[in-house]
Design a protein that fits this description.
alpha+beta; YerB-like fold; 24% strand; 4 helices; 363 residues
Amino acid sequence: MPAENARSMRSVLALLFVFSLIAAACSGGDDTETAESTTTSEAEEVTTTTADEDEDDETTTTTEEAPTGPVAPLTGLPVSNESALDRPALAVKIDNHPRARPQTGIDLADIVFEVRAEGVTRFMAVFHSESPAPVGPVRSSRTSDFDLLTGLDRPLYASSGGNDNVMAGIRRLDIQAMTNASNTEYFRDGSRPAPHNLYINAEDLWALADESEPPSAWFSYRRGDDTLSPSAEPIEGPVTIAYKGEPLVTHTWDSSEGGWLRTQNGLPHTTVTGDQLAPENVVIMVANYTVSSADVTSPEVQSVGSGQLFVLTDGHVIQGTWSRDAADAKPVLIDSAGSPIDLTPGRTWVLMPDPGAVTLPIE
């Protein structure tokens, strides 16, 4: 091969070699970019995940800390008077006879229990975060009260007394009973007919309390951005509770009030101020009744045990079951999916009708 042709061939081969190197380099660069891109993507993913975890942690912390101040155990609401949290619960038996209406101070109760008595329901209003002055009309005790009182962590107890058998049972309870039979702080309102005219100022009884501990929470409450149970169903129209005897009760959600407006026998259930009662929560614990051992004419609610449950909260109804293993235990509320139910922070009325007494405005 001539020398000139040989040089030309070497040049071509050299160029081909250079091109091959460039191609290899370009191919390696794509792999490098992909690797760097993957590494960067993974790093960003890890960073994002870490950020999300941090945000979740912050949200969880915020949720646990909200509200920021002291919280009342029986409402889940912040309180401005921290010293009030150190006092025991005050349970007051309140009359619901037609002649006792409208009642006084019941709208300030943290929890109100409504159970059957003789032909009409009777309330046990539990005060802790607020101090009504006065509250009433105060009426007599029933054996239905025993297990409810035991679950309130040695409360003060106000009533007008009771028959000998009931009072003997009251004396056996680990509570601070301050009935009208043994306490001079009670007074009567002469403008009302007896016996539906007995009243008490809460502070007068708290001033007599010993150093008993404050109550522990009866219910758990949603906090911060917690959502309702997935089992919750929105409802429109009244929920009806037909107690044996009277009253016929309805609760209807009112978003402007943020509560469940209560009626009795078709009329708004108001206090002496004219305000209609509208608690944030209505917990309907369907329960059985037996004949009281203290009086054959008196029904006795079985508040220890289990039964059907309807929870009215935030414009929804959550159906499930309630259970309570012992008189000193708090009720466990479980939805139809088997999850615990949290209430909306606020006041709660606990209604305890017989089976078959509840009608919902949904199919």
